Amino acid sequence: MTTTLVTGGTGTLGRLVAGRLRTDGHEVRVLSRRTPPYAVDLREGGAGLGAAVDGVDTVVHCASTPRGGDERAAAHLIEAARRAGVRHLVYISIVGVDRVPYGYYRAKFAVERLVEESGLGWTVLRTTQFHDLVARVLGALSGPPVLVLPARIADQPIEVAEVAARLAQLAGGAPAGRAADMGGPEVRSFESLARAYLAATGRRRAVVKVPLVGRTYREFRAGGHLAPDRAVGKGTFEEYLAGRFGGRDGRRG
Q1: pLDDT range class, residue 248, cuts 50, 70, 90
Q2: What is the DSSP string of the chain?
């Protein structure tokens, strides 16, 4: 039986990866900042990290935050993994990190390079955005009476459970380098996703599209974050919304 460490193992993706690995017969350790016995802040490193990777065959690195520190966290993890003789490091990234000059994407791309240059066996999987992230963004935007969207932007959301299953599969195999990207089943205008969200949550909002400026917006508008040729996901955004909001009575403000 192999031992696999999942960083960020209590998060949206990590907990599903850990569960899938256990179902597949792996012994799983979960690392997060606040969950014993492997409560470790990767940005700080320390002795706890060494204990977490000791005896581990594979690390699935899901821990990430747009608030900064991903590169430092990855450097600490890689150093500890080298010392422990970890065989395989699997990293989850985002489609477009090498094209869209958004700060968080740049950090993810930098971590990809650290993984590739780590000297460890490695696999990197890029996916498009998860359904729940798109829903969280739309929930925040739909708070005011008018829902303001960036004009001419599309997205390709994917079901997080499908990504978790693929990561678990990759973790159980040999290092694969850059795995084929995973995109959701449909490339959709952000307006259509917003209207689906409003319908599912019973919110009535005027939708206004506003053009933005700058290179980051241009790259998003050009579809640098999309993978239309890798639309391998099955679950649609409407199916996600039905599962999450289907029991509501539509009388939300």
Answers
A1: low
A2: --EEEEETTTSTTHHHHHHHHHHTT-EEEEEBSSSTTSB--TTT--HHHHHHHTT-SEEEE----TTS-HHHHHHHHHHHHHHHT-SEEEEEEETTTTT---HHHHHHHHHHHHHHTSSSEEEEEEE--BHHHHHHHHHHHTSSSEEEEETT-EE--B-HHHHHHHHHHHHTS---EEPPPB--S--EEHHHHHHHHHHHHT---EEEEE---SHHHHHHHTTTT--GGG------HHHHHHHHHTT--S---
Give domain limits for the chain: 3-245
What is the CATH number assigned to the segment(s) 3-245?
3.40.50.720
pLDDT digits (tens, 9 = 90+) for 64-106: 999 999 999 999 999 999 999 999 999 999 999 999 999 999 9
Enumerate residues 6+ apart whose C-beta is below 8 A from 115.
Answer: 61, 74, 78, 89, 91, 122, 124
CA pseudo-torsion sign 161, 162, 167, 172: positive
Closest CA to 57 of 18, 14, 2: 2
* Residue 117: CB atoms within 10 Å: 10
- Write the CA distances from 103 to 82, 96, 109, 110, 225, integer angstroms: 28, 12, 10, 11, 14
- Please, what's the largest Cα pairwise distance for the chain? 56
**Number of residues in the chain:** 253
